[in-house]
Design brief:
This protein folds into two domains: about 5-55, Winged helix-like DNA-binding domain superfamily/Winged helix DNA-binding domain (Arc Repressor Mutant, subunit A, Orthogonal Bundle); about 65-140, Alpha-Beta Plaits, CATH 3.30.70. It is about 35% helix and about 20% strand. It contains five helices and four strands, in the order αααβαββαβ. The protein has helices at about 5-20, 25-30, 35-45, 80-90, 115-130, and strands at about 65-75, 95-100, 110-115, 135-140. Helix 1 (about 5-20) packs across helix 2 (about 25-30) and helix 2 crosses helix 3 (about 35-45). About 15% of the residues are buried. This is ArsR family transcriptional regulator.
Length: about 160
């Protein structure tokens, strides 16, 4: 059963979204809770699936993946077989950071990271050659990343 999040839970989540490596003692201090009570709440948030995992955010430029592209994908037929084939291919491609089935004028929106335009050309060729049912793609190369956040705006959550 989903339990409503209280203000203390939201404080914990805000702090962890800022720094997932914060110690339990420091987290407890920041939210004015005992370390034992804080740890119990964090474990409950993990067990309830609110906290899914902890990750490190890396600098794509320094790791040779500085070019980000968004690709609109239109399938030739929207059948369960084509959806499954597309999902399977995308899940095997390490360059794909995100892939979303969308409603509207195309079927999927793909976010990918590559080194440069030449690597993107190779990626797109592999993508199209190995993905059954793709009718067309439209690519948008990112020129400037204006905003990129990972934190969910918790102030918007109805209590």
């Amino acid at each position: 059963m989903d339990r409503a999040l209280d203000s203390t839970d939201l404080k914990i989540l805000r702090e962890l979204q800022e720094d997932g490596r914060i110690s339990n003692v420091e987290l407890a201090r920041r939210i004015n809770l005992s370390p034992a009570a804080c740890l119990e709440r964090v474990k409950r948030l993990q067990n309830d699936g609110i906290i899914q995992r902890y990750v490190a955010l890396l600098d794509p430029q320094r790791l040779g993946a500085g070019m980000m592209v968004f690709i609109q994908v239109v399938l030739d037929r929207t059948t369960p077989e084509n959806f499954d084939a597309f999902k399977g291919t995308v899940q095997r491609m390490p360059q794909v950071m995100e892939c979303h089935m969308v409603a509207g004028g195309f079927d999927y929106l793909v976010k990918a990271r590559v080194r440069d335009m030449n690597e993107y050309r190779l990626f797109l060729g592999e993508f199209l050659a190995t993905t059954r049912g793709v009718r067309e793609t439209h690519t948008y190369a990112v020129m400037e990343e204006v905003k990129n956040v990972t934190a969910i705006p918790l102030d918007q959550i109805a209590r």
